[in-house]
Amino acid sequence: MRLVLLGPPGAGKGTQAVRIAKAFGLLHLSSGDILRAERKAKTELGRKAQDYMDRGVLVPDDLILSMMMDHIARPGAAQGALLDGFPRTVAQAEGLDTRLAARGWKLDAVVNMEVDDADVTRRLTGRWSCPQDGRIYHEQFSPPARKGICDDCGAQLTRRKDDEPTVVRQRLETYHAETEPLVAYYRGRSILKSVDAGGSVDQVTAAIKEACRGL
Predict the structure, then answer these.
(1) Hey, what CATH class is 2-212 in?
(2) Active site annotation includes 213
């Protein structure tokens, strides 16, 4: 089975990817994790990607596609793979389809985790972390005993730069412009399965499992 998880920032893709990959015996392939690992290992692909990033420009689609296909084709993915954070654009999706087809493979399903912008904004802007021990808090779902203070070490909590309200708005605008068109693309290929990602973690996991049943 080969799956793709889609959804806006804050939808919980990373959390669900780990759970679903384990449930179906799939290799979890996070494009962000793979890019960081390739750069750290200083592979040829990693060095090329680093060069683009050092110049402050986007890593080309062909390079990202080559990097992802290299991992999709490894023995560890023989039972299947779950793609998390990739593809991000229709051009990448088309490239992925072409490269999979060249090997006689295809995607079995694309799961779209639906959550509205207001919910995403609440989830992300309400998130705080401890700079000392890394513990994550949320103003609404898991607040500290004392506002702004870590329960464990007493450090002042901080908010990640990409969770600032203005940055969250920009991330959502980018998602709607560049990644959301993938929903229509995969719907047109009749492999899109949409689930409500507004519930609890367990509820969303159950919904994704049900959507993928029988694949």
Answers:
(1) alpha beta
(2) no
